[in-house]
Specification:
The structure holds 2 protein chains of 2 kinds.
Chain A (H helix, E strand, L loop, with lengths): L3 H8 L16 E4 L5 E6 L5 E8 L13 H8 L11 H8 L3 E6 L4 E8 L3 H13 L5 H20 L2 H13 L13 H5 L3 H11 L5 E7 L3 H12 L22 E8 L4 E8 L10 H13 L5 H9 L3 E8 L7 E9 L5 H18 L3 H17 L4 H13 L7 H9 L3 H11 L5 E9 L7 E5 L3
Parallel strand pairs in A: 2-6, 7-11
Antiparallel strand pairs in A: 1-2, 3-5, 3-6, 4-5, 8-10, 8-11, 9-10
Chain B lengths: L2 H16 L7 E4 L5 E6 L5 E8 L13 H8 L9 H11 L2 E6 L4 E8 L2 H16 L5 H18 L3 H13 L11 H5 L3 H11 L5 E7 L3 H12 L21 E5 L5 E11 L6 H13 L5 H8 L7 E5 L6 E10 L3 H18 L3 H13 L8 H13 L10 H6 L3 H11 L6 E5 L3
Parallel strand pairs in B: 2-6, 7-11
Antiparallel strand pairs in B: 1-2, 3-5, 3-6, 4-5, 8-10, 8-11, 9-10
The chains are: A alpha+beta, B alpha+beta.
């Protein structure tokens, strides 16, 4: 049940895998004259490479009325430039034995290709081309906006958990744009125009708003040369100013209910908490990460052990917190009560677990366990080039330099039991809490099959 | 010549040279009788192990659907000398990760651990106990059964689960693959059912041990034997599954209030080791397997904007596993989308891929071969399948060559044999 964090990232994101990590002199970095940063991590275990282009622009940079445009533009990036026809990008990558896709989040938009290492130059050329030369054909737009609406139906409208989190975000944040779902509100999608997409592209898709991450069986000097060759000619342009849109302080608990077809009720509790703004100076975000591990880091962590196994109060119970993001942070508790128990009883169960930590803190053993998982997790993530590139990209997007990844782990390892107790006392208070409940609705009728034999 | 075509040409010239061989797979049988597949790799201080048994849902006795999954889920919730929380805490202390799963043919447990002896030794001992001395404590059994029933009820409110269950039941009306776990079938399970299923199916002769990572061959031999020597003694439950019969073509609809209709089409089509595997693999790439470049994607998504996801694939199993096409679309356009899919499929069956499509498929399948093996985890997944289904040990080495030699005619002939339209079933959940 350590999947909540992943779910939160997925919910906020159109396609994303897991978290992950890095080493000493490697990675290497160079900045081109146009402002584009190129980060290369050499990993020679297999003859492949992953290439990613990250843009510091995501759903949180959108304005009301055109929500979802960041993600829509991501789709349009596959629809051609003057030299690469609609859909040809993916065809060329596939013919090179590569895989490609992209993902949009609240904080960023990113594009990636996994290729045999000999094909790195090819995908850099293609990616550089669409950084500045996207066609944005109105006919292609008309098709693609329909695809995005289908995506919204699939991922959100017909998914009770996603609807719960969408509603929770819109209530937990009143002013900050984190209140808006990445996929966009349906009505905004219905009214979106190709000009909205073009405005977005012209505003944000410039080399000085991007960075390239390459991990794989490559020589960093070669990659820098290729980057200069393909990306070097793109012109930098001034970026629009970004308003801070700071969320006003919450004073008082907020509650909401979402109804959707389901069997199991759900309770989602979200506390406003800080995230990392200064890797060295900050302390609380690290303690919150460890707290999440103590509550839900493994199958015998507190929520599973107490709420699922001992009290048999929950079918599932999890915690999730992401310490790195451009915007404000939330610490989530999420679960479903077993039959015969109410949502209120599960909420009380969550509150009792938090209260125990507020009162008694956590044990040295629990801390050691969280540390052991951190240490092994650092090794395991080296098994995936994609995960290593993701980590560099995500941290950079949140303003956490990848060069400090090691410090980040050291800070996490140095968290004390007192610090964990202290963040529980400081942030787990009702005034900072939003509670969202899923009120499950029966299907209109018992599903009945109607069948017909057919002939061809 | 377009850029794609030109690059494709260049690539084909290089393809044979680029096509790397698979990893060296060591294979032996333990004294206990388990088959072992091992890839030695010391790049990272990690060991990955998977132990799979011929204990998938197809082996559940009649009326006991859900038994395989529940049994597998209970393995690590109490062993001789350790309760469920001790097991999970010790694994966490070691930084080890235990996981597992069940499909139609297999139940498996996987362990990822650091290779340092003070981590690997204790972690493997826990895995040994999970496989060899699960206790299935009565109270834990009741709790997990309740959780499973509730989760299943919840899943059965959603169109993707309803459609999937109906699809399998329709494709395999008289075969074990068509039996679905229901809240009722799980609720009726007894602890003795779990114990019996475990005793009869978690035996060394039904086990395949896959190992990848930082071990020597000698160490791997010891590990494999240790993991399997305390398994239940051999039982007389047959391993071989009956052959499915093909259903007659039919369309099944279930109403649902979802915004989208979920459409599935398919039939039992392909077993592991079938000589038509490569023609079907290569052909399906052009039909619906090739992500953004397949015909289904082009016609359904790119031309008409009908769906976010549309795909086709073959799922080869121990006996004929399904060929499946799937999509989800706004409910009032389900009929139209279904018609497009039928037309695409019929066109493909009639003519096969074009030469250009065939070239593109080969370029991708051969060219992307290194991506299938660029981590220990992916290597483990590959050798686990090779081992469990008894595929040739040079399957990966000859993969590129087998892809390259497929022709349009072979694809047409293979699709005609394996995807006869008079046996194609269609399921639509939701829609108007």
């Amino acid at each position: 049940m350590a999947t909540l964090k992943r779910f939160i990232r997925q919910a906020a994101c159109v396609f994303v895998l897991v978290l992950p990590f890095a080493a000493e002199a490697n990675p290497f970095e160079r900045q081109l004259a146009n402002g584009l940063r190129v980060i290369v991590k050499e990993d020679r275990r297999a003859p492949t490479a992953v290439h990613m282009a990250w843009y510091r622009v995501g759903a949180m940079d959108e304005h009301n009325g055109t929500t979802g445009v960041a993600h829509l533009l991501e789709h349009m990036m596959f629809k051609g430039t003057p030299t690469t026809g609609p859909g040809e990008f993916s065809r060329v990558v596939a013919a090179a034995g590569g895989r490609d896709n992209a993902f949009t989040n609240k904080d960023y938009t990113a594009y990636f290709q996994q290729v045999p290492k000999q094909k790195l130059a090819l995908v850099m050329q293609l990616e550089a081309d669409r950084m500045r030369h996207l066609t944005l054909d109105p006919k292609e737009f008309d098709q693609e906006i329909r695809v995005v609406m289908e995506e919204r139906r699939l991922r959100t409208d017909d998914n009770p958990r996603a609807r719960l989190f969408e509603a929770l975000g819109a209530v937990a944040f009143e002013a900050h744009p984190y209140r808006v779902p990445v996929i966009g509100w349906m009505n905004d999608l219905q009214n979106m125009t190709v000009q909205d997409a073009r405005d977005w592209y012209d505003r944000w898709y410039v080399p000085n708003n991007a960075y390239v991450v390459v991990v794989g069986d490559v020589d960093h000097a070669d990659v820098f040369k290729l980057a200069e060759k393909y990306y070097g000619g793109l012109e930098a342009r001034a970026l629009p100013s970004r308003k801070p849109q700071v969320e006003p302080e919450q004073r008082g608990i907020r509650r909401l209910v979402v109804k959707a077809p389901a069997e199991l009720p759900m309770v989602a509790m979200a506390y406003k908490v800080p995230v990392i703004r200064d890797v060295e100076q900050d302390a609380d975000p690290y303690a919150l990460e460890i707290l999440a591990a103590v509550l839900d880091g493994h199958d015998a962590a507190r929520f599973s052990k107490n709420l699922v196994r001992k009290q048999k109060l929950a079918v599932s119970a999890g915690a999730g917190y992401d310490a790195t993001s451009r915007g404000p942070g939330l610490f989530y508790l999420l679960g479903s009560p077993v039959r015969g128990k109410t949502r209120a009883e599960l909420e009380a169960g969550f509150r009792a677990e938090i209260a125990r930590i507020v009162k008694d803190g956590v044990t040295v053993d629990e801390l050691a366990r969280a540390r052991a998982q951190l240490v092994s997790g650092e090794i395991y993530k080296l098994d995936s080039m994609f995960a290593q590139a993701m980590e560099i990209g995500q941290h950079e997007a949140a303003g956490v330099p990848y060069t400090l990844n090691k410090r980040l782990i050291e800070k996490l390892e140095s968290v004390t039991t007192e610090q964990v107790q202290s963040v529980a006392q400081k942030y787990f208070i009702d005034d900072l809490l939003t509670v969202a409940e899923l009120d499950p609705q029966p299907l209109p009728q018992t599903p009945r099959a109607s069948s017909a034999k057919t002939r061809h | 010549m377009t850029l794609a075509r030109f690059l494709g040409f260049v690539f084909l010239c290089l393809a044979t040279r680029l096509a790397v061989a698979g990893p060296k797979i060591d294979h032996w049988q333990t004294p206990s009788g388990a088959r072992v597949f091992f890839v030695e790799n010391h790049d990272l201080p990690i060991v990955d192990v998977q132990v799979a048994f011929a204990a998938g849902s197809a082996y559940e006795p009649q009326g006991k659907a859900g038994l395989a999954g529940l049994t597998q889920g209970l393995l690590d919730l109490g062993v001789e000398g350790l309760d469920e929380n001790q097991i999970a805490s010790r694994l966490a202390d070691l930084g080890a990760i235990l996981s597992g799963g069940v499909d139609q043919d297999r139940s498996f447990v996987s362990l990822r651990t650091l290779s340092a002896e003070d981590k690997r030794g204790p972690a493997l001992s826990i895995l040994r106990a999970v496989l060899g001395t699960p206790q299935f404590p009565a109270e834990v059994f009741e709790r997990e059964k309740t959780r499973t029933v509730l989760s299943l009820k919840d899943a059965l409110t959603r169109p993707e689960t309803i459609s999937s269950q109906l699809f399998w039941a329709t494709m395999y009306p008289t075969h074990a693959y068509g039996r679905n776990a229901t809240p009722e079938s799980v609720a009726a399970l007894k602890r003795a059912d779990i114990q019996n299923f475990y005793r009869n199916h978690y035996t060394a002769s039904r086990a395949v041990v896959s190992l990848v990572g930082d071990l020597t061959r000698e160490q791997a031999e010891v590990v494999a034997q240790r993991l399997t020597e305390s398994l239940p003694s051999e039982a007389s439950v047959p391993v071989v599954l009956g052959e499915p019969q093909l259903p007659s073509a039919s369309v099944h609809r279930i109403a649902h209030p979802a915004a989208q209709a979920h459409v599935l089409m398919g039939l039992p089509a392909l077993k592991r080791g079938d000589p038509d595997f490569f023609p079907l693999l290569v052909g399906n790439y052009s039909l619906g397997g090739g992500g953004f470049v397949s015909r289904l994607m082009k016609e359904v998504r790119e031309k008409r904007g009908f769906a976010y996801s549309v795909y086709s694939y073959f799922l080869p199993l121990a006996v004929m596993g399904p060929f499946q096409i799937g999509l989800q679309t706004k409910k009032n356009q389900a009929g139209e989308a279904l018609k497009v899919v039928r037309d695409v499929l019929a066109g493909f069956l009639a003519d096969g891929p074009s030469e250009d499509e065939l070239t593109a498929a080969k370029q991708y399948l051969v060219g992307s071969f290194p991506l299938r093996l660029d981590s220990n985890r992916k290597t483990l997944e590959n050798i686990a399948v090779i081992g469990f289904y008894g595929l040739p040990l040079d399957y990966l080495d000859r993969y590129a060559e087998n892809v390259e030699k497929v022709t349009v005619d072979e694809i047409k002939a293979a699709f005609a044999r394996h995807v006869p339209l008079n046996h194609l079933v269609t399921v639509v959940v939701g829609g108007e």
